[in-house]
Amino acid sequence: xxxxxxxxxxxxxLVKLPTGAGSxxxxxxxxxxxTGLILIVVAYGLWYSTSLISYEWRWNRVPQYFAYxxxxxxxxxxxxxxxxxxxQGATARVTLAGDSGARQVLEVDQDSLRVAQGDDVAEGDAVxxxxxxxxxxxxxxxWTTLWISVLSGALGLLLGLxxxxxxxxxxxxxxxxxxxxxxxxxxxxxxxxxFIFYFFIGTVLNLSxxxxxxxxxxxxxxxYVAEIVRAGVQSIVKGQNEAARSLGLTAPQAMRxxxxxxxxxxxxxxLAGQFxxxxxxxxxVSVIAITELTKSGREAITTSFSTFEIWFCVAxxxxxxxxxxxxxxxxxxxxxxxxx
Length: 340
Hints:
Blueprint: H1 10-14, H2 21-52, E1 67-75, E2 80-88, E3 91-98, E4 103-109, E5 120-121, E6 126-135, H3 137-167, H4 172-186, H5 190-205, H6 209-234, H7 238-246, H8 251-281, H9 293-304, H10 307-338
Antiparallel strand pairs: 1-6, 2-3, 2-5, 3-4
């Protein structure tokens, strides 16, 4: 009976490779511990730095800039007399009777009641106030940042896809115009483009600041997306296009059904990075008086005097937007890699 001996490389005779999950965890835990230690040192450094300048932390002032109880005065609509007051728990129901016989019923908080039964009130007099929860400036700034990012990102993606394909076109005019657009936008700062678009183009065409801000961000994003698309398409071997054409597909059909799906898998990481940068670039539209997240943070600082707390919250909100984008891009990238 013949026995077969397994071939063993020299380095395998000297080193025994771990194959189990337990050995892998044993091998990685010191590095995770080192990461935790570095983060602790950084946190201590931040705390020690603030202690040197005697900064007093006031985190209790921050929640009101996300949500607060707004106070709304309930006023008489006309000259009238307080006909009746009915107390129902913490709410008071006030009935006002006018000279013409018209009645007005107002519900106010009992502890804010400013009239008594039989009192005369004039038009606009406050009978009491009601309280309700309202969104704070940081919440509205976050919402503005989100819708500006989504809208300008979608427009920039469409514009970048069209421009990237024009860069690869056989038509010299399309290539020249797309090249001029890409080089002009990439070669100038975004802040300058926002100023030009709002104060010059926006003034001539009577555009709103929101439209000007979204358009400037979309044009800026489109130029970078165009280069990403161009590089992705050119990375696909020419044999793919030739094979598609040999099967009877036209050039647009080959680009749509064969080239672009393969290129999308390769350009997904840089596209995700570009859209993450776009979210952060929305902070620049505050220079044309759009109250997005950064401008909301500055306004909150002027009333709360909690500089560090507000800026830490603003940074955390930007991180809250960008981390899911990064995770979605990573999952989509892995799923597309498995479909190869």
